[in-house]
Amino acid sequence: MGSWVEGADGSGFGLENLPFGVVGRGGGPARPAVRIGEHALILEPLAEAGLLGDLPPGVLAGPALNPFLELGRPAWSATRARVTELLREDSLEREAAAAALVPLSDVEARLPVAIGDYVDFYSSIEHASNVGRIFRPDAEPLLPNWRHLPVGYHGRASSVIVSGTDVRRPKGQLPPPEPGGAPRFGPSERLDIELELGFVTGPGNALGSSIPTGAAREHIFGFVLVNDWSARDIQRWEYVPLGPFLGKSFATSISPWIVPVEALEPHRVAPPAQDPEPLPYLRTDEDWALDIALEIALAPEGGEETVVSRTNARGLYWTAPQQLAHATVNGTNVRPGDLYASGTISGAEPDTRGSLLELSWGGRDPLELSGGAGRTFLEDGDTVVLRGTAGAVSLGEVRGRILPSL
To answer: What gap in Å lies between CA 157 and CA 164, rounded to an integer?
Structure first.
């Protein structure tokens, strides 16, 4: 059965999806909402009227979804079921729901959660192999630990931004022009993107405990698209021996609507075979790869958009439950609203790579855009858009435009 909301059916944001986010008008308060078609269903008035079941008072008052995420899977599932009932064609409470519906054109999407912690993984074997070949052409592409654990690092939660926010070109130390020379200082000359899929956590675990792979569904609320902007020259100079720092921490963009795990259940598929078999704490009894078609589009300032890559998240070597299990196996605690990103998602073919670093092979092979422009890395004024779709379920887009360095 479809929805009574005009244009919702077949939009990617129909009843199959119902992603959660936060919207506001101008400088007004941010309010949790569910997206249906090109509308946002504001949740607080429905909760206050008792139409969303037995929820604690004020849990959907805003300005972020964290209090709702803390309630856990039973509350998430019950609320989604009630929203579905309100929006179905045969809804008996259509009038009340219609009063809480606002066009997306009348509001702006805000950052949906207050992110307390952000972790970025390195879960695509194709991406890790490509980067290894580019950065270490005379060495084995994968380091010895890569096939044994989901490699990751802690990012900067304060610079996670919502789609549509401009990104300022970062400055920092750039590698010496020749071996043994002194580094330079200035704006990044190799500004890049990373096509990623992220998940947002719910209740979490107590400090000193861990989350097994089999409990992932109780702790993962839903998924967003992630663009982890990267200054490759800054990164290359700084990353040995402790990994990414200033080359990654200046901005990470996410899509504004969190697609619930329930909406993606029909799109779970078998992941790639893992060899060697992971240690017991990383083994899973279910298929947790996600069949999500992804694309990268790039448009120069004043120019038209060119799709430069198409790939699929189903090829990720390390899955979300494995990422979460590894992140917590030492006893660290997860909190509602934490963000865990997959790392760049790349496929085996040249046109399925998830970063400009790979697509241009370190700047060696420029990309040709519509209108004849070429790119190896991003130029000021460029706009990048990442999109994702799982069947009838859209993950929307994450968009950002590059501003000149100050």
So the answer is: 18
| CB burial string 308-340: b at 16+ within 10 A, e below | bbebbbbbbbbbbbbbbbbbbeeebebbbbbbb
Q: Give the C-alpha separation, 52 to 54, whole Å.
A: 7
Checking if the pLDDT of 179 tops 90, the result is no
Contact assessment for residue 346 and residue 352, using Cβ atoms and an 8 Å cutoff:
yes
- The residue from 127, 219, 267, 326 that is catalytic is 127
Query: Would you call 219 a catalytic residue per the annotation?
Result: no
CA pair distance 403, 170, nearest whole angstrom: 10
pTM over 0.90: yes
Mean pLDDT to the nearest integer, 158-187: 96
For residue range 30-51, list pLDDT tens digits in order. Answer: 999 999 999 999 999 999 999 9
Q: Provide the mean pLDDT of the chain.
A: 97
**Domains along the chain?**
20-110 (2.30.30.230), 118-403 (3.90.850.10)
Could you tell me the two tokens for 386? Answer: 């990442």
